Write a sequence for this structure.
């Protein structure tokens, strides 16, 4: 695997990851803007824009023509919107690289946002919103974000609300895109069986003429104060809850330690939470804990879904494990297993060029070193037991514990009485 970077005169950055034995390739365009860049009145516009880029271009005027052209290549295509970036990608066999890049460039550069398609897409996205509202696990995820990031963009639904989606217009989409889609915040990554020279040459043909405008800054997410518990009543069979704290982001030097901490606490079937909640107490089909990091901020949290009758048993046990791991030494075996889990997952990820594209593209997007899997594995291996306890003490402070829950419970005091 060979990793090279290049920058066009207008600021577009390119990452080429040549994997000579790969018969396929993934091309991914990553724009460093997402829902955090929106104002409240425009909530959901980054996601709406991502949808509309597939609805017609000056060269391919209909959504059907775009999808047929991708299908003719046997391409796997997708797009996504997050808090901090938006992505468009296509995976094809190696010989189809140039043609798939042509289509990706077309939807990025030449989308026309037809009014008729825009009105239809409002209904599609509103249905997507309602789909998430019908899923308690999705609802509790959003509720936890709103609790931990109260009043700031990171706490808003990426998809927006029905009101903001219904209020979208073509002029607003165009204005937002023109202000935010700067070549200086665009990274294009090609991972797979495409040589560096070919990747650079084809991308330069397509993207060298983009007008250079200033890049939007990364939005700083300040510390916020909120209530400690937030619940939403849902007439369902299960109670889903998330429990955790705000923690540090992807740019923090201790992020690898925090990820191993999450693995020990709830990242595997032998983890503390899984063994305690599911194997010993007999609750919770899913039980987990993890460190989720964005650029500049993150959360450390865990969760499960249970019969509401088990709350008085499960929640105290859950909280006890969070407190205990910050105050008692971990074992050699726990650390060894967690590091092996993280390292193995890392190396297996590098077998898929789509994952490789995402890994290096996002790193380059925020200006981080493009580490090889061996370099990242060495950092994982260097983590000591004392590091785990130090980071646990730093982020798992009881006064910062928060609980979000969705299910057949109406009184937040049921949860508050268990908080330290």
């Amino acid at each position: 695997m060979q990793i090279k970077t290049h920058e066009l005169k207008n600021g577009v950055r390119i990452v080429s990851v040549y994997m000579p034995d790969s018969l396929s390739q993934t091309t991914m365009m990553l724009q460093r803007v997402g829902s955090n860049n929106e104002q409240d009145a425009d909530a959901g516009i980054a996601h709406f824009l991502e949808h509309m880029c597939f609805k017609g271009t000056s060269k391919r005027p209909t959504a059907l023509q775009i999808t047929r052209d991708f299908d003719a290549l046997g391409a796997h295509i997708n797009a996504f919107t997050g808090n901090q970036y938006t992505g468009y990608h296509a995976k094809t066999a190696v010989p189809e690289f140039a043609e798939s890049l042509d289509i990706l460039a077309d939807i990025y550069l030449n989308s026309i946002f037809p009014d008729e398609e825009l009105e239809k897409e409002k209904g599609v996205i509103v249905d997507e919103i309602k789909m998430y509202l019908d899923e308690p696990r999705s609802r509790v995820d959003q509720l936890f974000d709103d609790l931990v990031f109260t009043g700031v963009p990171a706490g808003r639904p990426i998809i927006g609300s029905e009101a903001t989606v219904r209020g979208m217009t073509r002029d607003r989409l165009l204005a937002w895109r023109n202000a935010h889609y700067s070549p200086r915040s665009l990274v294009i990554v090609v991972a797979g069986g495409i040589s560096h020279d070919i990747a650079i040459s084809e991308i330069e043909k397509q993207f060298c003429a983009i007008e250079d405008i200033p890049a939007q800054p990364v939005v700083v997410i300040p510390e916020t104060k909120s209530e400690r518990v937030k619940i939403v009543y849902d007439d369902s069979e299960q109670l889903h809850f998330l429990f955790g704290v705000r923690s540090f982001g992807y740019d923090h030097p201790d992020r690898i330690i925090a990820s191993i901490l999450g693995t020990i606490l709830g990242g595997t079937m032998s983890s503390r939470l899984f063994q305690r909640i599911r194997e010993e107490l007999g609750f919770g089909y899913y039980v987990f804990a993890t460190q989720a990091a964005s650029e500049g901020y993150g959360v450390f949290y865990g969760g499960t879904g249970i019969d509401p009758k088990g709350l008085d048993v499960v929640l105290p046990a859950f909280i006890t494990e969070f407190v205990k791991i910050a105050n008692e030494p971990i074992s050699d075996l726990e650390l060894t297993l967690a590091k092996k889990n993280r390292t193995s997952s890392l190396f297996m990820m590098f077998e898929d060029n789509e994952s490789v594209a995402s890994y290096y593209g996002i790193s380059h997007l925020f200006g981080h070193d493009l580490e090889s899997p061996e370099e990242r594995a060495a950092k994982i291996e260097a983590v000591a037991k004392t590091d785990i306890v130090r980071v646990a003490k730093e982020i798992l402070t009881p006064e910062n514990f928060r609980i979000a829950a969705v299910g057949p419970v109406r009184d937040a005091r049921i949860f508050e009485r268990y908080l330290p």
Summary: The chain has a mean pLDDT of 96. The chain has two domains: 2-207, 229-416.
